[in-house]
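User: Show me a protein chain along with its predicted structure.
Assistant: Here is one chain, sequence first, then C-alpha cells.
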Amino acid sequence: MSALPWYEDVSPGRGTLPPRAWYARSDAPVLSLNGDWAFRLSPTADAEDESFTAPDFDAGGWGTIAVPGHWVLQGKQGEAPGGYGGPAYTNVRYPFPVDPPRVPTENPTGDHLRRFDLPADWPAAGGAVLRLDGVESCASRRRASWSTRRSSSRSGSPTRDRARSW
C-alpha cells in the first residue's frame, strides 16, 4: 500500500468548486497557462516522491509537452508519436483489471510542472480561481506548483478557488 495521499483517496473532487458552464463570461482577470510544461512520466503512481514541488527543483531532466494537450499522444521517450504511451480508454476493453476501488500497481502517472508569476497589475485583493480544463483523472496543487495527481473530476474540469499565494 502506498503512503501517498492521492493514491487511495476515496473523496475525489474534494476542494473543487461546483461545475459550471465553460462559456460563462466574467470580467475577472485571466492568465492563460497554455504553452510548454515540464513533464515526467512514472511507471506507477508511487514511483516518484514530491521533491518536484520544492521551489528550487531542477526539472532539467524532464521532457516538455504542450498544454493543452493529451500527454499519451505526445512523443518524447521514444521520440515517436505517443512516446508517453497510448490512450487507456478505447472502444475495445479496459487495458487493466477492473477491481474497484483498487488501482492497479502498473498505473502510469504523469507529473506536470509549470512555474509562473502573476503579472504586476494582478489585483492584490481577493483570491484566484485555477481552472484545469481537460484533466482526465486527478490534479493537485503542491506548494508553488500543481501535480496531476489529485481531485478526480468526471467533468474533466476541476476548478479550485485559492488564495493568491501560489
